[in-house]
Design a protein that fits this description.
Blueprint (H helix, E strand, L loop, with lengths): L7 E4 L3 H13 L3 E6 L7 H5 L2 E4 L12 H10 L4 E3 L9 H9 L3 E2 L4 H8 L1 H10 L7 E2 L6 H11 L3 E5 L8 E4 L5 H16 L4 E5 L5 E9 L5 E13 L2 E7 L6 H17 L4 E10 L2 E8 L6 H8 L3 H9 L16 E8 L1 E2 L5 E2 L2 E2 L2 E3 L8 E5 L6 E2 L6 E9 L2 H14 L1 E3 L5 H7 L3 H5 L6 H4 L1 H4 L7 H17 L7 H4 L4 E3 L9 E8 L4 E10 L2 E6 L2 E10 L2 E6 L2 E10 L2 E6 L2 E7 L13 E3 L4 E6 L6 E2 L4 E7 L2 E6 L4 E6 L6 E2 L4 E7 L4
Parallel strand pairs: 1-2, 1-4, 2-3, 4-5
Antiparallel strand pairs: 6-9, 7-8, 7-9, 10-11, 10-13, 11-12, 12-15, 13-14, 15-22, 16-17, 18-21, 19-23, 20-22, 24-25, 25-26, 25-32, 26-27, 27-28, 28-29, 29-30, 30-31, 31-32, 33-40, 34-36, 34-39, 35-38, 36-37, 38-40
C-alpha cells in the first residue's frame, strides 16, 4: 500500500459541490484549484477557491465534461490530485484512468470498480453472482428495441426502463401500457446517450410503493471496510430525491445490520476503495439491490450529521493511502438528520425548472451542528439553464426525529427567496403532511398526497391583502399620488378623475401565478387606511411597515408578512406559507397573443422536432422535445389541430416564453 501527500487539489466540478469539497480540503491545508465556465465567471465556488481556471463555454458538454481541457488545466496548475465531486465526470472510468496516467492521485474508487458499477447491466450480473437480491427484470446485452419491448411485456406492467449508465432520474421511464413502450425506450436511450454517452437500457419490474433506502460504505486500500448506516431517500419527484434522512424511519436494528452487511459484501465483491453508496428498494421487510454509486452522494451530509464524521476528509485520507479513520465497532448513530433540496423549479407546473436572478435571499439561522446550509449561490446570482437547478441543501439535526423535524420546519419558514420560483413552499407543505410526520414514506409519496401538496389556485386572501397594502404604502412612501404624471399612464393603475363626497378610488390589476387576472378597487379612507373591494366582498384594512416587515390589520386582527416587490412580481411570505403574484399589464392596443401558440416553458435547447408544417396532430401528441437543466421536456399539443408554423430548428437555443409552434384548431365541420 503506497502513501502519498496531496497538496494541490483540482476540483473537477462546480457550485455547491466544489465548495463542499474545498471546505474539507482547505481545513487539511490543501491548496484548492477550481474550474469555471463562461456562465460561472462570478460564481461563488470561483471566489472560494485558492485559484480558478477558465475552461470554456457555458454548456457543460463544452466545458466541465471535456476531459482534455480539465487535464490540461490540472497539468498547468501543477495539481497533484483531482477530486471529481459528485455528478459530471465522477463516475467516468476513462477520466479516472487519464488522471492517474498523468501522475496525479484520483480521489475516488479504482477504475475497475467504476467500470463494474458504471453499467447497471454489468453490476446486476456481479451482484447476482455474489448472491445479492435483485429486482426481477432483464439485465442483458441485447439492446434491440423489439427484444426490449418483448421483455417489457413479459415482466408485466408497470415496468421501469432505465439507462444502464444513468443516475439522478435521467434516462428513466415508467411504462404502464403497451402503447407507451416504443416512446419510452426511445426517450430513455436518447437521454442516456446525451447525459452519459451510453444508450444501453435495463428493464425491471416497477415496484409501485417501495422505499428507497441506501447504505453509505467506505473502504481503504488495505481492504478494511465499514458502513456508516442508512439513509431514507424515498421522497422523490421525477425519480430525483427531494428529502433524505438518516437513520431511516420505521427501520429496525436487525434490518440495518442485514442491509449494511449486504452493502459491504457488494463493495468487497468489486475490490472497492473510497466512498460509495449502495442503493436498495425496500418493500415490506424485503430489499433488492438497485445500483451502486461509485462516488459521494448529494445527500451525504445527513450521514455526517449522525456520525460526526467528515466524509470528504475521509475520501482524501483514503486517496493518500491511509487506513480508514474508524472501525465498524467505533461508529454509532447519534440523533437524527434530514436534508431538503431547494430547487429553482415550479412544483405546480410538473416541477419544471425555472431560471432567473436571486433578487432576494433570506437565509435560515445557521446553528453549528444543528442547522447547516450547503450552497453555491448568493443573493444577486443567476440560476442559469445550463446546470442542475438545485440552489442549496438545507440540513438539520435533532436529538430524535421529532426534534429534527421541528428544527427543519423552523428553518424552512425562515428561508425566503425571491426573483425565481422555487420549491420552498412545496417543502413547507410536505413536511407538514401527517404521513411524513409519522415516517410513513414511499417513492409514491408525492403522487399519493398531491392534493395536500399543490398550491391552491386562489391565492390566499390575506396574502392578496398584504400585497395590496404593501403596494399602497410604497406609493405613499415615494411621494406618488394620483396627480403624479408617471402614474397617469401606468398600465396597472386607473384612478377616476373626481369622486365628490366619496373616498378617492383606484383600480389595481394583479394576476395569480397561474395567469388568472383580477381587479381590486381601492378606496383611500385615511392615512394608511383603505377599503379593498375583493371578489369575496369589501374589506377595511390598515397597514404599517415595521423593521422591513409589513403589519396589516383587518377583521380585528393584526398580521405580519414580508412582501418583496421586484420586476412587476410580488412575493408574500408569512407563517402560513408564501404566494406569488404579478402586476397585470394592459395591452394598449398591442396585437393579441397569437392564438394557439405554444411557448417554451424555460430556457433550453431544442433537441427534437416531431412534426412538420401542415401536419394534423391530436391533443397530447408530442410536437417537439426540449432539453433544459439536464432533463428532457416534451412539448405536447393542447388540442387537435394543424401545425401552422415552427419557429426554431433542432439545436437552437430558446428562451423561456419564446413561441415554438403555432397550432390552428381544426374546423369541426
Amino acid at each position: 500500500m503506497s502513501t502519498k501527500t496531496i497538496t494541490r487539489l483540482l476540483i473537477a466540478n462546480r457550485g455547491e459541490i466544489a465548495i463542499r469539497i474545498m471546505q474539507s480540503a482547505q481545513k487539511l491545508g490543501i491548496h484548492c484549484i477550481a474550474l469555471y465556465s463562461e456562465a460561472d465567471r462570478n460564481a461563488l465556488h470561483v471566489k472560494k477557491a485558492d485559484e480558478a481556471w477558465f475552461i470554456g463555454p457555458s454548456p457543460a458538454k463544452e466545458s466541465y465534461l471535456v476531459v482534455e481541457k480539465i487535464l490540461a488545466v490540472a497539468k498547468q496548475a501543477n495539481a497533484d490530485a483531482v477530486h471529481p465531486g459528485y455528478g459530471f465526470l465522477s463516475e467516468n472510468a476513462g477520466f479516472a484512468q487519464s488522471v492517474m496516467d498523468a501522475g496525479m492521485a484520483w480521489v475516488g474508487p479504482p477504475v475497475a470498480a467504476i467500470e463494474a458499477m458504471g453499467s447497471k447491466i454489468e453490476s446486476k450480473k456481479l451482484m447476482e453472482a455474489a448472491n445479492v437480491p435483485l429486482v426481477p427484470g432483464y439485465h442483458g446485452d441485447n439492446q434491440d428495441e423489439a427484444f426490449l419491448s418483448e421483455e417489457v411485456r413479459k415482466i408485466g406492467f408497470p415496468v421501469l426502463v432505465k439507462a444502464s449508465a444513468g443516475g439522478g432520474g435521467k434516462g428513466m421511464r415508467v411504462i404502464e401500457s403497451d402503447a407507451e413502450i416504443s416512446a419510452a425506450i426511445a426517450a430513455s436511450k436518447r437521454e442516456g446517450l446525451n447525459s452519459f454517452g451510453d444508450d444501453k437500457l435495463l428493464v425491471e419490474k416497477y415496484i409501485t410503493r417501495p422505499r428507497h433506502v441506501e447504505i453509505q460504505v467506505f473502504m481503504d486500500e488495505a481492504g478494511n471496510g465499514v458502513y456508516l448506516f442508512e439513509r431514507d431517500c424515498s421522497i422523490q419527484r421525477r425519480h430525483q430525491k427531494v428529502i433524505e434522512e438518516a437513520p431511516a424511519p420505521q427501520f429496525s436494528e436487525i434490518e440495518r445490520e442485514k442491509m449494511g452487511e449486504v452493502a459491504l459484501l457488494s463493495a468487497k465483491a468489486i475490490n472497492y476503495v473510497g466512498a460509495g453508496t449502495v442503493e436498495f428498494l425496500y418493500d415490506n421487510g424485503e430489499f433488492y439491490f438497485m445500483e451502486m454509486n461509485t462516488r459521494l452522494q448529494v445527500e451525504h451530509p445527513v450521514t455526517e450529521m449522525i456520525t460526526g464524521q467528515d466524509l470528504v476528509a475521509w475520501q482524501i485520507k483514503v486517496a493518500q493511502g491511509e487506513d480508514l479513520p474508524l472501525r465498524q465497532e467505533q461508529l454509532s448513530i447519534n440523533g437524527h438528520s434530514m436534508e431538503v433540496r431547494i430547487y429553482a423549479e415550479d412544483p405546480d407546473n410538473q416541477f419544471l425548472p425555472t431560471t432567473g436572478h436571486l433578487d432576494f435571499v433570506q437565509l435560515p439561522e445557521l446553528i453549528e451542528g444543528r442547522v447547516r446550509l450547503d450552497s453555491g449561490v448568493v443573493q444577486g446570482d443567476e440560476v442559469s439553464p445550463f446546470y442542475d437547478p438545485m440552489i442549496s441543501k438545507l440540513i438539520v439535526w435533532g436529538e430524535d426525529r421529532r426534534q429534527c423535524l421541528s428544527t427543519l420546519k423552523t428553518a424552512l419558514q425562515q428561508y425566503q427567496i425571491a426573483g425565481v420560483t422555487t420549491n420552498l413552499s412545496f417543502l413547507r407543505r410536505l413536511v407538514n403532511v401527517a404521513a411524513f410526520k409519522e415516517g410513513t414514506v414511499s417513492t409514491a409519496f408525492i403522487e399519493e398526497f398531491e392534493s395536500q401538496l399543490i398550491t391552491d389556485q386562489q391565492v390566499k386572501e390575506h396574502h392578496l391583502i398584504a400585497a395590496v397594502c404593501q403596494h399602497m404604502l410604497a406609493r405613499v412612501s415615494t411621494g406618488q399620488n394620483r396627480h403624479a404624471p408617471e402614474l397617469a399612464n401606468s398600465p396597472w393603475h386607473n384612478m377616476s378623475a373626481l369622486r365628490l363626497n366619496a373616498a378617492s378610488r383606484e383600480t389595481l390589476r394583479l394576476a395569480y401565478s397561474n395567469g388568472d387576472a383580477l381587479e381590486i378597487k381601492v378606496d383611500s379612507l385615511a392615512a394608511n387606511q383603505w377599503l379593498l373591494h375583493l371578489e369575496t366582498g369589501a374589506v377595511k384594512v390598515q397597514a404599517r411597515l415595521q423593521d422591513q416587515q409589513l403589519q396589516y390589520e383587518f377583521d380585528g386582527q393584526w398580521h405580519n408578512a414580508r412582501v418583496i416587490n421586484h420586476d412587476n412580481r410580488i412575493w408574500v411570505y408569512d407563517s402560513l406559507g408564501e404566494s406569488e403574484l404579478h402586476y397585470q399589464q394592459m395591452s394598449f392596443g398591442q396585437d393579441e397573443e397569437v392564438g394557439g401558440s405554444l411557448k417554451a416553458p424555460m430556457n433550453g435547447t431544442l433537441i427534437q422536432v416531431d412534426v412538420a408544417i401542415g401536419q394534423r396532430v391530436q391533443k397530447g401528441d408530442s410536437l417537439m422535445i426540449m432539453e433544459a437543466m439536464k432533463m428532457e421536456h416534451a412539448i405536447k399539443a393542447p388540442h387537435d389541430g394543424v401545425v401552422k408554423s415552427i419557429t426554431f430548428a433542432v439545436g437552437d437555443l430558446v428562451g423561456g416564453g419564446d413561441i415554438l409552434i403555432e397550432l390552428d384548431e381544426e374546423d369541426e365541420s
